[in-house]
């Protein structure tokens, strides 16, 4: 079954957001996940589609009103409508959104109340984000996140009825099945019952707290266990922590997207860690021993041999990143960069000039330098 996404969570807005707030949030999210900005990123492309789906519904007042009351059930039925949603037989009869509007606004015109409570459809899945450091991703961490979601109404215990279970009766149109069938030419089409909208039951007097829906909006704080070795962009699924579907219905799931902050010291590549270490020219030439940090919080000593060149790597086995669902670790690589000294004083300059004079007579000391300019000389003389 396809995952149901909470359109408000996708756009990162509250359910009370104004049209301007929705538009602003949509533009921000669309710009962030646009395929042109994330070439080859399948996750960003999928997110971009979700953002457009959400805004397509929420920017329209009638669609938004239907979604607020019935969730994704408002768009289930026959053929697909704009934006990839299902609108049954269209707005003008034939079920789908047209019947939902009739139910919603018919009450105001003296049509009486029908259905709406005790829906047995599963609650919608919702999404959230947890931001962690690289060190937390290495060791694993528990994070508290706060989500705005729909929970079961305590006043009516999710029935949607002011009188509880006694105020809920079997739907007279579908006789509790939640579905009806209609003949269309040679075909028999099955769709959600337009009276109870798939609930199989109707409510006589809706609960004033939840207005017959069976669920209410509430903020919840959850603790999410993020495992060691998790990668940036991974999703963690918390079964049953999504929106409530009301009494008798399974709740949806919560999907937590993990975002790992960039580190000032380390760059991660899968299970390997890279650390860029600048050395003074004298250290690289004479050799030295340096102490480097390790992602687990420890330290490691690395011997730098004399004559080390900029760009060389030194490997520390087993000092890299943790591997997801494993006790293994990758390797750590020290990448050396040799710095050219700046702001020399008089004595330093004299020493370097003396060194350069000596180095010019010793081609073995800089073989690449000597070899390169020898080839340049041959080129200008037409020998190569």
Report on the architecture of this protein.
- By secondary structure, this protein is of the alpha+beta class.
- The protein is 26% helix and 25% strand.
- The strands form 6 sheets. It has a 4-stranded mixed β-sheet with strand order 10-11-15-14. Strands 1-9-8 form a 3-stranded mixed β-sheet. A two-stranded antiparallel ribbon has the order 2-7.
- α2 (19-33) runs antiparallel to α3.
- The longest helix is centred in the first third of the chain and has 17 residues, at 42-58.
- Mean pLDDT is 81; it is low at 77-119.
- CXXCXGXG motif repeats lie at residues 153-160, 171-178, 193-200, 207-214.
- This is Chaperone protein DnaJ.
- Its main location: cytoplasm.
What's the short story on this structure?
The protein is of the alpha+beta class. Helix content is 26%, strand content 25%. It contains nine helices and 15 strands.
N-to-C SSE string, H for helix and E for strand: HHHHHEHEEEEEEEEEEHEEEEHH
Which stretches are poorly predicted, pLDDT < 50 over at least 5 residues?
77-119
Task: Count every helix, treating DSSP H or I runs of 4 or more residues as helices.
Answer: 9
- Outline the biggest β-sheet: 4 strands, mixed
Roughly how much helix do the residues carry, as a percent range? 25-40%
Q: How far is the N terminus from the C terminus?
A: 68 Å
Domain CR-type: 140-219
Pfam family, one: DnaJ_C
Protein name: Chaperone protein DnaJ
Family: Belongs to the DnaJ family.
């Amino acid at each position: 079954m396809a995952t149901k996404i909470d359109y408000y969570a996708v756009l990162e807005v509250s359910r009370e957001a104004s049209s301007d707030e929705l538009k602003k949030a949509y533009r921000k999210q669309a710009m962030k996940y646009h395929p042109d900005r994330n070439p080859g990123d399948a996750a960003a492309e999928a997110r971009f589609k979700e953002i457009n789906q959400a805004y397509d519904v929420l920017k329209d007042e009638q669609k938004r009103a239907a979604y607020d009351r019935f969730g994704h059930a408002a768009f289930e039925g026959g053929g697909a409508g704009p934006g990839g949603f299902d609108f049954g037989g269209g707005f003008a009869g034939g079920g789908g959104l047209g019947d939902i509007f009739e139910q919603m606004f018919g009450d105001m015109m003296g049509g009486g109340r029908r259905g709406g409570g005790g829906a047995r459809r599963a609650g919608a899945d919702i999404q959230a984000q947890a931001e962690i450091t690289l060190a937390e991703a290495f060791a694993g961490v528990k994070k508290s996140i706060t989500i705005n979601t729909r929970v079961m109404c305590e006043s009516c215990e999710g029935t949607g009825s002011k009188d509880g279970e006694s105020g809920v009766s079997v739907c007279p149109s579908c006789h509790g099945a939640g579905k009806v069938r209609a003949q269309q030419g040679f075909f028999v089409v099955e769709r959600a019952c337009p009276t109870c909208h798939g609930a199989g039951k109707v409510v006589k007097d809706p609960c004033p707290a939840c207005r017959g829906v069976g669920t209410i909006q509430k903020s919840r704080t959850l603790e999410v266990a993020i495992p060691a070795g998790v990668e940036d962009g991974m999703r963690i699924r918390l079964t049953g922590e999504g929106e409530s579907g009301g009494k008798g219905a399974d709740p949806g799931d919560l999907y937590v997207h993990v975002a790992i902050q960039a580190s000032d010291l380390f760059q991660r590549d899968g299970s390997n860690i890279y650390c860029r270490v600048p050395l003074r020219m004298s250290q690289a030439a004479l050799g030295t021993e340096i102490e480097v940090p390790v992602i687990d919080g420890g330290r490691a000593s690395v011997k730098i041999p004399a004559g080390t060149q900029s760009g060389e790597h030194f490997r520390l086995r087993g000092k890299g990143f943790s591997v997801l669902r494993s006790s293994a670790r990758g390797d750590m690589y020290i990448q050396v960069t040799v710095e050219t000294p700046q702001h020399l004083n008089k004595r330093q300059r004299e020493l370097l000039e003396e060194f350069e004079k000596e180095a010019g007579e010793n081609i073995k000391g800089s073989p690449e330098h000597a070899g390169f300019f020898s080839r340049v000389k041959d080129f200008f003389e037409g020998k190569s």
